[in-house]
Design goal:
Three copies of one chain form a homotrimer. The first copy, chain A, is α+β, with helices and mostly antiparallel strands and 349 residues long. Chain A contains nine helices and 13 strands. In chain A, strands 1, 2, 3, 4, 5, 6, 7, 8, 9, 10, 11, 12 and 13 form a 13-stranded antiparallel β-sheet that branches. The longest helix of chain A has 16 residues, at 64-79. The relative contact order of chain A is 0.16. Chains in contact: A-B, A-C, B-C. The interface between A and C is large, with 42 and 51 residues.
Amino acid sequence: MSKTATGNFFEDFALEQVSVHAAPRTVTAGDQALYTALFGSRFAVQSADPFAEMIGYPKSPVDDLLVFHIVFGKTVPDISLHAVANLGYAECRFLNPVYPGDTLFAESQVIGLKENSSGKTGTVYVRTHGTNQHGETVVTYVRWVMVRKRDETLKTGHDTVPTLITHVDPEALGGACPPISTEAWSNALSGSPHRFDAYVVGERIDHADGMTVEDAEHQLATRLYQNTARVHFNAQQEAKGRFGRRLIYGGHVISLARALSFNGLANAFHVAAINGGRHVAPLFAGGTVYAWSEVLEKAHVPGRSDVGALRLMTRATRDLPCDAFPQNEATPEQPGVVLELDYWVLLPV
Amino acid sequence: MSKTATGNFFEDFALEQVSVHAAPRTVTAGDQALYTALFGSRFAVQSADPFAEMIGYPKSPVDDLLVFHIVFGKTVPDISLHAVANLGYAECRFLNPVYPGDTLFAESQVIGLKENSSGKTGTVYVRTHGTNQHGETVVTYVRWVMVRKRDETLKTGHDTVPTLITHVDPEALGGACPPISTEAWSNALSGSPHRFDAYVVGERIDHADGMTVEDAEHQLATRLYQNTARVHFNAQQEAKGRFGRRLIYGGHVISLARALSFNGLANAFHVAAINGGRHVAPLFAGGTVYAWSEVLEKAHVPGRSDVGALRLMTRATRDLPCDAFPQNEATPEQPGVVLELDYWVLLPV
Amino acid sequence: MSKTATGNFFEDFALEQVSVHAAPRTVTAGDQALYTALFGSRFAVQSADPFAEMIGYPKSPVDDLLVFHIVFGKTVPDISLHAVANLGYAECRFLNPVYPGDTLFAESQVIGLKENSSGKTGTVYVRTHGTNQHGETVVTYVRWVMVRKRDETLKTGHDTVPTLITHVDPEALGGACPPISTEAWSNALSGSPHRFDAYVVGERIDHADGMTVEDAEHQLATRLYQNTARVHFNAQQEAKGRFGRRLIYGGHVISLARALSFNGLANAFHVAAINGGRHVAPLFAGGTVYAWSEVLEKAHVPGRSDVGALRLMTRATRDLPCDAFPQNEATPEQPGVVLELDYWVLLPV
């Protein structure tokens, strides 16, 4: 029997099947430094231990999205090695903070399977749990991907689509955020006078800056997460593929958009949940990413007077500045939106 | 009111105005590893804890220039987002060592403002202090930049140019260097038999090697410092700009020159002060950086018999080997000098 | 006398001469994070402290090849600055584990010198020891390089070739691996059900994935090791050189092949020895690296019932997938094998 793992095709998945993913990962200050170098993130809580300590954390937590990407990366060899498209995320919640030195484990359960009418592919829905060395869940999310079938003539009959909530309820937010002192919070050091109360529903914010992505950068990032998806790394194979070149991991765009959003949302220190995310168009090296956000909703977090939650729709674009708040989707040829991310952030009140 | 920070134009500055810069930063072993990967620095004191401990440090300090770049990076959103040119540095002194785990804070005071005769720009002079979590100043420097005006028709009348010293006095050197044991210092491990006494004023040293810079490299470095200057990151915007491409952060050249200077100055373990620095020409990705140094002055540090100070003029070139000690300035088209850096280094006696 | 170190030419070496190499290096979690980002390595022992602790390590050790590269890097300024070719390695053994916080020192002894008949070059054989801060050897290896002569008219008469063993004896393996608990070893977390017993001599394994290398990536890696070999960094000089472009450090290929080998050898957690290695063809940026392995030999490690040793021949290719187990050597123009590595790995029984 071949020792080479070949990944799962659509017919290899079964409903309720659980996969324990390989290669747990201790997250260190080294990972956080690389993350900063890759995205330039500046949120004070994650950047400086004394700032975090001042407001009530034991020390700076690891960036939420770095946690997400590492957990996600572990699922790739089992779930999406034969994915044609990463269709969406939902019900993502950050439940416990992660600190340098903590170790991340991941497992996923298949919660839906639906064969496509073409018979060539099917959609796999998994709920993934990322846990720490104490067995506590630090992040959980649902993701669905279109996966190739090995044998297109085989009918699986799978037709189960899970019911997913459109957005996380505010009362489910904040598990990864200890009680914080809003008095100790320094707007000067965090970089903005605008706290929770300053934002209004419907407000649009241009994050202004653009960031051009190089192949070396997204490859370093994606390997840092131990994500093995081939489309990101193999220029020879991808030259013959759909886009003629390496495709950048969608999570790279999410992290760029989040880092760019500092300009306008400097006090949105914690991503508490991701309601939904769509990679509406691909990004390739050489592309310049911009972003803008709209405030969809404001919510008090039940039981907490220290933080409030903003539900944001952040759109990231390729090669299109966002001062006009563009909504047109990019194509491989035309600039436009490449990411739509609907998520909750916490701000001090 | 827009939440997007747009940065300060010349008329937004006032004399003696103080800015507390956002995003304090805990410096870790991860940052130091990235710095090594970016520049290949080999100075033994910063490279190996046991070497540092042997001579009297509690452990390896963070590279002086990494400290400088992080502090500098914090000032960009407040001081130089609308800079046309970074004109110079002066009076830079390193006053306390920084160790992994320390946190850097930055604030700047405007010490000079001079409107240019064109009416389109003005020169802003700031004195910046980088402090640690104990409130001790670790680095201080003066920098001046030419900043655009928002409204070219408005006359500010500003005509204040601060008096700056031409070079730091030797008695002001060494605050960041604990007393060291010159007996414990191993020339074999440091990489050179040449200590303070071996150098003579007027001596010229070719640092021999050349280092080609990639876009991914300078972007990683500049984001590591959380420096947000747009010219370094946005290829789309810069394609329409002055140079037609991204401009490399000047500090990248300084760090390359310092790392290259190991060959010839391996025992110059500490940058104690920067008397002045000029980026005489731009550097772009694809350029190869070389460097050579001239010993301008030798000085005993008052009260210290363990270290002596060399005042160096290090010139870095683009695409021009330095065996002939070139002084011609590069242009965007022609190879030549891109950096002139006048600074003090300490060596064991 | 010039302060610039110019490196040793063939006639500068003497038999039995010992060089203490400069710049000891403390290895940190930052280095390990960068190593992960550069190669995407996923072996659980090195990836997660709890996994390592569960089986008997005090914590995750530093990747074996990162240790090798750092020690190797230190030897370059003394041994191979004027190397024409890196001819081979032999008798490499990992004798003690290295943990983050440990410091690596290196010294080499000349064990062979043979002038080539052309009179232009000679082969230098050195045995290098990498030691930690306690003076324990962590890695030792023999390496031979063809080095240019400064004066081609001078006859050195050197004709000493050391006798080297073809492969390390199994009883010499395992010094860097503490006793491990095979019961505590989780195949689910390590990523494979295939332990020592599952492999058979003669078995061939395609590691399936391909990884395209960028100039920024190999430069970051090679500087991380403080390796100063000019051919890797100076595009301007190399444009006029043998290959017309920067040559990638051969060790980069070794690390890529090792990381790729996870797919098929996920439980081969420790490189215990390198019997021999040949860089049969150069690699340049833009090349895509694949790898496959053949099991040459299986051995019990005397005195140990926890681990068994596989002797592998891993071949890495440039631009050639390995499903057909190719053995043809690449040329600068044609795809094919670039590396042949004969080494011992340990697996849990």
